[in-house]
């Protein structure tokens, strides 16, 4: 689909803003398709996100040179052989015109321009060959989304909402996690989108990045689905819902779900420009601790439980991350995007997986995703150590054995005065989830 004029305007504005942030020449590479065992069978190609941010099209084997707001494209014309296998493709000149390039040359010419330019490797540029000044300029731009980006994130989020509704609706008849995953991903595929990351659809939500789908569904299971669509333009979304396979939460599941939801809602109510994301994380931790104290699972003052990282036995990850062209946006740059200058990750158990430690500002998009997990590898040694016997009621915890993993995740745009939940069309309340998950 040709790029619309509004997108072209946004691309030009991004190029102009880069020139202000980083006046020298910049070279960015799209990357190439990675083959799966033999050359003709490749993994689905997706261009490097920094390239995509300025070029607008997910072109393979291409590079762009940016300077003073001008873009030069380097890519080869399609060969006749490529046309035989892949069909007719636009020429370099046609693509250059489509993305508003000021000049276009064969890919081989890029080498000449590379010498003088600041650049980044196409993948995982945490340590290798990178210009720190360029990294900082890219972060300054990509932290706050323009209207064109926000529209695309909203489009992806809308499809993710439909996918989750389809997953809940498919559950009464589904026998396995795989069948629910299929119902969800088919919605994304039918909208000509892709998954922004490997879907998690599991009755073992305590395995945080569980990418297996073979378990059968039992009536007392909770199903945790972390599934997000990516628009063809590359912009991502990221939603998690947790619902009962039977369509009704058991009392124990409902109690813990309500605690996680309170943490989720508290963070969203507090999200606004100027607030530290780390403070939202700590708010989620305190709200969880408070709820678990009320359920008799923890004992003590929520504040001191959080200071001792007792909550982290059940909520070991951070409350979320930046969202943009990548689902964990700009994590290819390490913590430079997630952590404000001068800040570093804590080695405290309750903070070391915090991916974002910056004050929030208008048009940042972040996820809010508190959870509760019973991870045997965390809880068994903690119990055995005796260190938490004053804080955790281990006997009472037995009554909640069937609650293995719950996460509730939404995508949140910070606005001038507060925030907008971009995924709000998908309910989070117990009754609404039960209704969606039991409708045949
Ligand atoms: N979908 C990965 C995450 O929520 O961070
Ligand atoms: Mn997430
Ligand atoms: Mn997620």
Structure report:
It is built from 14 helices and 17 strands. With 440 residues, it is of the alpha+beta class. The chain folds into 2 domains: 5-142, Creatinase/prolidase N-terminal domain (Creatine Amidinohydrolase, Chain A, domain 1, 3-Layer(aba) Sandwich); 147-438, Alpha-Beta Complex (Creatine Amidinohydrolase), CATH 3.90.230.10. A 5-stranded mixed sheet has the order 6-5-4-1-7. Strands 9-10-12 form a 3-stranded antiparallel sheet. Strand 4 (63-67) and strand 5 form a beta hairpin. Helix 7 (147-170) runs antiparallel to helix 8 (177-190) and helix 9 packs antiparallel against helix 10 (277-294). The mean pLDDT is 96. The chain binds glycine (GLY) and manganese (II) ion (2 copies). The site of glycine (GLY) has 7 residues, from loops.
Helix content: 25-40%
- Largest sheet strand order: 6-5-4-1-7
The assigned structural class equals alpha+beta
Distance between the termini: 36 Å
CATH topology of the largest domain: the name is: Creatine Amidinohydrolase
Largest sheet: 5 strands, mixed
Assign the CATH superfamily of the largest domain.
Creatinase/methionine aminopeptidase superfamily
Our count of helices gives 14
Could you say what the CATH architecture of the largest domain is? Alpha-Beta Complex
Which CATH class of the largest domain is shown?
Alpha Beta
* Shape summary: globular
């Amino acid at each position: 689909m040709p790029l619309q004029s509004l997108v072209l305007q946004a691309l030009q504005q991004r190029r102009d803003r880069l020139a202000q942030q980083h006046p020298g020449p910049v070279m960015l590479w799209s990357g190439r398709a990675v083959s799966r065992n033999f050359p003709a069978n490749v993994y689905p190609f997706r261009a490097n996100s920094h390239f995509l941010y300025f070029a607008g099209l997910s072109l393979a084997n291409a590079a762009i040179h940016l300077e003073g707001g001008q873009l030069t494209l380097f890519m080869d014309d399609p060969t006749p052989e490529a046309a035989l296998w892949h069909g007719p493709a636009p020429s370099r000149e046609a693509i250059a015109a489509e993305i508003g390039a000021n000049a276009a040359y064969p890919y081989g010419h890029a080498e000449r321009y590379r010498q003088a330019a600041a650049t980044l490797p196409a993948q995982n540029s945490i340590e290798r060959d990178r210009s720190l000044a360029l990294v900082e300029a890219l972060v300054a731009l990509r932290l706050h989304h323009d209207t064109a980006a926000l529209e695309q994130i909203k489009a992806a989020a809308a499809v993710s909402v439909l996918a989750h509704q389809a997953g809940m609706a498919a559950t009464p008849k589904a026998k396995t996690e795989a069948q629910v995953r299929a119902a969800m991903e088919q919605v994304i595929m039918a909208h000509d989108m892709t998954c922004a990351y490997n879907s998690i659809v599991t009755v073992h939500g305590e395995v945080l990045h569980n990418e297996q789908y073979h378990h059968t569904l039992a009536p007392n299971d909770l199903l945790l689905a972390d599934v997000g669509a990516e628009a063809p333009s590359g912009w991502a979304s990221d939603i998690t819902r947790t619902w009962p396979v039977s369509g009704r939460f058991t009392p124990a599941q409902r109690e813990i779900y309500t605690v996680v939801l309170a943490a989720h809602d508290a963070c969203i109510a507090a999200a606004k420009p100027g607030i530290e994301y780390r403070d939202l994380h700590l708010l989620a931790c305190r709200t969880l601790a408070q709820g678990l104290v009320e359920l008799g699972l923890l004992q003590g003052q929520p504040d001191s439980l959080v200071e001792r990282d007792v909550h982290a036995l059940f909520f070991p990850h951070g409350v979320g991350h930046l969202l943009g062209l990548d689902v964990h946006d700009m994590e290819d740059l390490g913590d430079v995007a997630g952590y404000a200058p001068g800040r570093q990750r804590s080695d405290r158990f309750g903070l070391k997986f915090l991916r974002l430690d910056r004050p929030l500002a208008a048009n940042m998009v972040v996820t809010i995703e508190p959870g509760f997990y019973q991870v045997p590898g965390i809880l068994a040694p903690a119990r055995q150590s005796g260190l938490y016997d004053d804080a955790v009621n281990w006997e009472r915890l037995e009554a909640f054995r069937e609650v293995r993993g719950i996460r509730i995740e939404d995508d949140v745009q910070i606005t001038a005065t507060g925030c907008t939940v971009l995924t709000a069309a998908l309910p989070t309340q117990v009754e609404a989830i039960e209704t969606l998950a039991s409708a045949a």
